[in-house]
Each structure stands twice: as C-alpha cells, then as structure tokens.
Amino acid sequence: MKTNIAASVLSALLYAQGLLGFAALATVLLKDRAPVGITVSANVPTGPSVVVVR
Hints:
Elements: H1 2-33
C-alpha cells in the first residue's frame, strides 16, 4: 500500500515538474517574439495625481 502511495506522489511530482518546464520553455520562446517597442507601464503615471472634474 505504501508503495502505491509513494508511486502516486512521485508521479504527481514528475508531472508538475514537466508542466513547470513546459511553462518556462513557453515563456522563453514567447518573450523572444514580443515586439521591442511595447512597454507595459508606458502610460502609468509615476507620481501622485489629482483629477479635477468641472
């Protein structure tokens, strides 16, 4: 019985490691394809701002 539990845990860990490896590979490959001129925080103000509505 303990052997079955150990085998199940090992299988789950190997499966999770495979998924993480695939996600890391996909991240690296997609990062290389991203356009150079696009920045995520281009329109975010850096300091405090006040909105005045009239």
